[in-house]
Amino acid sequence: MRLVRKTLRRISPSQGFTLVEMIVTLAITVIAATLIIPTFSSRTTSTQDQIAESYLVRAYDTAKEYYYADTAASNLGAPKPPTSFTGFTVGEANARESDLNWVGNGTSSFPNPKTIMITSTPSDAAPSGNVINLCDKSDSGAYLCISASPTTLTPAYSKGATMAAAIAKTPSATKGAGWG
Question: Could you please report the per-residue DSSP string of the chain?
Answer without folding.
Answer: -HHHHHHHHHT-GGG---HHHHHHHHHHHHHHHHHHHHHHHHHHHHHHHHHHHHHHHHHHHHHHHHHTTT--B-TTSPBPPP--STT--HHHHHHH-TTSEEE-TT-----STTEEEEESSTT-SS-BTTBEEEEEE-TTS-EEEEEE-TTTT--EEEEESSHHHHHHHSTTSPBT----
